[in-house]
Amino acid sequence: MNRNPLETILGALVLLVAAVFLVFAYTTADLRQVQGYPVRASFTKVGGLTVGGEVRLAGIQVGSVTGQRLDPQTFEAVVDMTVLESVQLPVDTRAVITSDGLLGGSYIKLIPGNEADTLQPGDSLQYTQDYQSLEDLVGEIIFLATQPAGGGGGG
């Protein structure tokens, strides 16, 4: 088989461009987990939250989800996460699992409280709100819409 040198050069060029693209995509995408102190939170439903997911405060990533497991006593999902050392969260901080739009993934939104005491490494967030899917919301709306108007019986 006789190969054309031009085909070989073009093939090598395509592979080089693909490698440059992969290096560019890896370096610009923030795929690393945030290093910080560990905290955990328990939820009855985590939706599509995954390990490596973001933990945000005021829309800014301040942490990463590092693990998920099922508590065999309470049957709740325990989510382990790290939070940046520079972010000292009050002990009454609330953790909410929410989605990043209709097609986006899930992340943990932190809503800081007002307490003076702060969370220490390894502490658990006491106030959590479970993931609420679009199907759950539509079901609630339909349930409310099918209820009879007026709540009392008069007679």
UniProtKB/TrEMBL annotation:
Alphabetical list of InterPro entries matching this protein: ABC_MlaD, Mce/MlaD, MlaD_Phospholipid_Transporter
Name used for this protein in its record: Outer membrane lipid asymmetry maintenance protein MlaD
Domain of life: Bacteria
Pfam entry (one): MlaD
Stretches assigned to the Mce/MlaD domain: 35-113
One GO BP: phospholipid transport
Annotated organism of origin: Roseospira navarrensis
